[in-house]
Amino acid sequence: MIQHRVTIPIQSKGNVGKSTDAIARLGWMSARGLAWQAFDLDSDNRTLSKAVPGVQMVELSEEPETDLIRLFRSVGEAPLTLIDPRAHLSRILMRCLEAVRFFQYGGKEPDTRVTILFFPMDDLAVMDEIAEVVERVGSQADYLVVRNRARIPRIRMYEGSELEKELLSLGACTLELPTLLTDTKDALAALEIGLQRAITPVQAVVDPEVRLDLIHRVILEDWLRLLFGRYERAAGYLLADQEAEKIKRTVAPPPDSEERGAGGRRGGKVNLQNLL
Hints:
Helix 3 crosses helix 4 (about 90-100). About 45% of the residues lie in helices and about 15% in strands. The chain is globular and about 75 Å long. The chain has twelve helices and seven strands. Strands 3-2-4-1-5-6-7 form a seven-stranded parallel beta sheet. This is CobQ/CobB/MinD/ParA nucleotide binding domain-containing protein.
């Protein structure tokens, strides 16, 4: 049984939505009453640690391998460990994970499983990097392919590729981040400027100090409901077994309104008699 789950994006390209996903997932887990620990490894931006209370900021020293190995040794302290690295840290991460045989042994914990997040895009260097990670890790980890159409509208290099087939054969799951309306994102940004602090989507909905316009609040609530439903369907890749089973038993994912059709037969409720 998997008692500890580690989720980590291993990709050197920035500005693909890694921190946006991390902030939303922590909001989802907190809303569901799940225990977690999270580490922000981006000392330049500190996006995650500024936005979410309880996230630990890790300042990497001149010997980052030592800092990362110390971090990996702490995964037994919570059922879920979320790591948000800065761009261009992927090779150091892989080197450290392999140095301590983390994929085989889970650090100190044999009941630990890693989920690697990929954000594919039409960039040859990114695709080669993903392919290299998959080749080196193989079935020793789980894979979650994250689609973020707001940042990466098309991924023609990935769709139908040998890499996609290989990941699917390894049981990879695909998660698509729903697109939030630009006006609502701008409204959130304006509130952050006014309050002089970071505001997560969940905080914007539940915090009475965040006076978000009613229409934008409704839009944001629908966006969160849709996204949380997708996290719940991917819970087996994002959580330890006990927590994933809890989600499965107690939370029914809502219908995915972006994916479902109108339902029923076309014209099934039309009065045909008046058309004959």
